[in-house]
CDP-alcohol phosphatidyltransferase
Amino acid sequence: MKDKLNVADWLSVSRIILIPFLLVFIAMEKNSVVGWLVLLGFLTDALDGFLARKLNKTSKRGTKLDSIGDMLLIASALLGLFWLYTDFVVEHAWPALTAIGLFLLQFILSRIRYGKSSSFHTYMAKITAVALALMLVSSFFFGIVPWLYYLAFIAAIVEAVEEIMLVFVLEKQRENVKGLYWVLKEGKDDR
C-alpha cells in the first residue's frame, strides 16, 4: 500500500480482524459475546464511512476495505444465526435464501459487467445494514424476533434487486451511488 491507512481504513480493518474471534464465540455458543462482537462490528461500519467523509479521506481502498469488512461481518453473523437458531432458520429459510441468492446473482453480474464487485453503497444498502444489525444483535441477546427477521431479509431482497438493476443501468461501475431513482434521474448521458 502506497499510503498509510487512515483512521477510517483502520476501523474497516478492525472489523475484518474481529471475524475469527466472532467465529470462535459462535462455535462456543456464547450468544451474548457474539451479540457484543456483532454490535461492535456494525458500529465500526457506521463510523468508518462517517469518518472518511468527515475527514475527507474517502478512497477506493477504503471503499474496498469497507465492503470486505461488511461482507465478512454479515456472513459470519448469518452463520452464527444459523448455528445458534438452526430450527427457526431452517423453518423460515426462504427470505434468507432469496436474499443470499439475489446477492450472489448481483455479485456475478457485477463481475461480468465491470470485472469486479460493485461498491454501490446505496441508501437501501444502508437501510438494510441497519435492519440486519438490529435483527442480528437482538437475536443474539434475546432470541429471534420473527417480524424483525422477515423485515431485515425483505429489505435485503429489495436492496439486491435494486443493485441488480443498477448493474444493468450503469455502463461503468460507480461507488457510493444513492440508488436507482437518482441514477435514472441523472439521465442517460451521465451514466
In short: Residues 86-191 form one domain. The chain has two domains: 1-84, 86-191.
